[in-house]
Amino acid sequence: MAILLNEEEHFFHLQSTNMSYIIQIENGFPLHAYWGPKLHHNKNLTDLIFCPMGSTIDRLPQEYPQYGSGDFRHPAYQVQLEDGSRVTELVYKSYRMIQGKPSLTGLPAVYVESKMEASTLEIELEDKYTGLTVVLIYTIFEERNVLTRSTKFIHKGSRSIKLRRALSACVDFHRADLEILYLSGAWTREGHLKRRQLEPGSTIIESRRGMSSHQLNPFVAILDQGTTEDTGDAYGFSLVYSGNFVAEAEVDSFQTTRVTIGVNPFDFSWQLEPGEQFQTPEVVMVYSAHGIGGMSRTFHKLYRTRLCRGPHRDKERPILVNNWEATYFDFDADKIQAIAKVAAELGIELFVLDDGWYGTRNDDTSSLGDWVENRKKLPNGLADLANKVKHYGIQFGLWVEPEMVSPDSDLYRKHPDWCIHVKGRRRTEFRTQLVLDLSRKEVRDYLFESLSHIFSTVPISYIKWDMNRALTELGSADLPVERQSETAHRYVLGLYELLERIVTSFPEILFESCSSGGGRFDPGMLYYMPQTWTSDNTDAIERLKIQYGTSVVYPVSSIGAHVSTSPNHQVGRCTPLGTRGDVAMSGNFGYELDLTKFTDAEKEVVKMQVATYKKIRSLVQQGELYRLKSPFEGIETAWMFVSEDQKEALVFYFQVLAEPHGPIKRLKLKGLNRDLDYKIKGQDTIFGGDRLLQIGLPIPELNGDFKSHSFHLTAI
Ligand code: DGJ
After folding, report:
1. Who lines ligand 1 at CB under 6 A?
2. Residue among 320, 355, 401, 431 whose CB has most ligand 1 atoms within 8 A, to mutate
3. Which of 45, 100, 225, 329 is the most exposed place for a label (fewest CB within 10 A)?
């Protein structure tokens, strides 16, 4: 068990191979004593908390701070009582240690495969006046620098209370000379890395859109000022949640930094009746002594192997072609078959039929909710088309957007109250669609039935689960007045329940989540679907930033990346097919264009790309990622993948812009074994690992913008 209790000094010491996290109980309050590199000793640690004489609670580093009794920073929770008061005082009551990691009811979370992988500490706090019990749940992974936290509210009192704020965790860093790193963006510009110095006041990273969002991802890292990609301390917080979230870093007047994270209290409240419980989502906290890169690799391995689930988790992912950018809504069975036939000839393994196959959908103004094939486009039906595609020797996949309804649909005409809405108010449409109220059981049952019917009557190997708008006019026809502010969170809980039913009923299907690209690229969705369509922007150069930033948290096996046509549809840029291939091969590889339009010469290139990816994909999808050159910092980008035994590596180098009289290019590699010699495929020279790490790999000159090289290294 990696949890040590020092009764004399009143602290719990959670310890993994290289990390410690220490909680001290003082005057009944759980205080935050330490998080960082492992402390080997378990005594004389009481002075970790600097607490000058006469200090108020405002100066103490807390684990789960309350509101109303003198700590003026943002609290971790706030409760409103029936008498209108908002003050509570949680006092330490007891603790429990559990070998392993219990799952969270109704919520996605990282898991263990053997109890010995992790230990869990539950600290029970109690507010005597209301009978509210709050359980702080900590799980430390023995061999990873990972701590997960969540909080459970149990109402043991006799009168209803209202949670106005119920965050997952709080960490009070004892200092303020820190920086914050996060992912910002927009539709077609996801995953852009932002880093800035923390200053007195708050930095708030949040979503109020009902989904985790393109704009800000549910992730922040707190960095030492000198932390780089490879060196220095990084403390990552990643919330396993797909709805409104908040992550805040608040620097106070005593030069400390409070980091809080959880469900966004904005437009949120939760009625808790006597006997009821409320479980917050989980936050995954990673400490890295090896910079941002070290933090990323810890997240990657954990998320790839202990968040993603199902039979596809460890399998190599198929190379697919998706018809969206090839045809948009304008296709018929013949066109689809023609693309699928060429795909099979080129070695592609899966054809995905995107939007437009159901109802009367010929553009984005109708039919969402009517999950029945469009017989005008597919006269012999979906199953017949899927069988024809399979006949070419490749698998068949399908796009769905179950969470939505078009006002012009049979479903909406029949059930106009099944969407999220506020009675008497306008129902704001985005892309001519409304959001189904997944907090309602009958809505989820309808979706489960209609999707199950398709999934069990059509030979489907893959599903792209899309979600193309944010939530507005938050309200549910099913909820009583006092529970209306629960709608956004209940939507997410309903979604998770539906996804659990679907993915466990159809375990053989590979699911990819999507939300107009990366609008819901978050750990919550990864629990159900091991891959995500990263962005609707398929331009190779834009993708360098998007994929680089996304990889700061998410494993490469989750990052969907496709070769699309040139000029690119989103930005009009022309790029070589080779570069497009190299960028897409740096993720879950596929194509998203009309393969029938390729010249014979292009087809040869594609055949080669497909054959190459089949050889390298285990390394890309399951290897360790090292980022070498950031697209946010210059005119080159580079990254590499290294096998766990360090005997194989794959390097991608991208010259975004050519420069005159540039320096001789040597790319310093990372992650290799300095004592091994490496041979590069197609070259005669043998390079020592130490030379590649210290001096670098020579990059042959590239003439022109948007060019790339790849290098496949094997140890000899
Ligand atoms: C948004 C997705 O991100 C696209 O890839 C495509 O599936 C469209 N929706 C279809 O409507």
Report:
1. 324, 354-355, 399, 466, 468, 514, 516-517, 533, 536
2. 355
3. 225
- Cis bond upstream, residue 281 (ω within 30): no
Pocket test for ligand 1, best of 533, 534, 538, 588 (most atoms within 8 A of CB): 533
**Section 369-387 average pLDDT:** 98
pLDDT computed for residue 47 by the predictor:
85
Q: What is the CATH number of the domain that holds 553?
A: 3.20.20.70
Give the structural domain span for 190.
Answer: 3-306
Does the annotation count 330 as an active-site position?
A: no
Long-range pairs, 193-201, Cβ under 8 A, ≥24: 193/545, 193/548, 193/549, 193/552, 193/630, 193/632, 195/223, 197/225, 198/222, 198/249, 198/251, 198/257, 199/251, 200/176, 200/251, 200/252, 200/253, 201/250, 201/251
Question: Is 170 a domain residue?
Answer: yes
Claim to verify: residue 282 and residue 368 sit in the same structural domain? no
Residue 56: what pLDDT?
A: 83
Q: Calculate mean pLDDT across residues 244-273.
A: 97
The pLDDT tens digits of the residues spanning 138-190 come to 999 999 999 999 999 999 999 999 999 999 999 999 999 999 999 999 999 99
301 and 362 inside one domain: no
Q: Which ligand 1 atom sits nearest the alpha carbon of residue 399? A: 7
* Residue found under tokens 């996290």: 21
Domain boundary among 622, 649, 681: 622
In a domain, 311, yes or no: no
Give the Å distance between the CA of 435 and the centre of ligand 1.
16
675 is catalytic: no
Shared domain check, 659 and 590: no
Instruction: Considering the candidates 408, 466, 522, 539, report the single residue annotated as catalytic.
Output: 466
pLDDT band at residue 41 using 50, 70 and 90 as cut-offs: confident
Of 693, 652, 653, 696, which is closest to residue 671 (Cα–Cα)? 693
The answer on 394 and 275 residing in a single domain is no
For 19, the token pair is 């990390």
Is residue 312 assigned to a domain? no
pLDDT digits (tens, 9 = 90+) for 503-561: 999 999 999 999 999 999 999 999 999 999 999 999 999 999 999 999 999 999 999 99
pTM confidence score: 0.98
User: Nearest C-alpha to atom 3 of ligand 1 is from which residue?
Assistant: 516
> Number of folded domains in the chain?
3
Q: For position 662, which CATH number holds?
A: 2.60.40.1180
Domain contains 31: yes
* 3-state SS, residue 368: coil
Query: Which H helix or E strand runs over 326?
Result: helix 324-327
Q: Which of 536, 539, 582, 594 is catalytic?
A: 536
Residue in 353, 431, 529, 536 to alter for ligand 1 test, most ligand atoms within 8 A of Cβ = 536
Ligand 1: which atom is nearest the Cα of residue 354?
7
Check pLDDT > 70 for residue 388.
yes
Looking at 306, 338, 357, the residue that finishes a domain is: 306
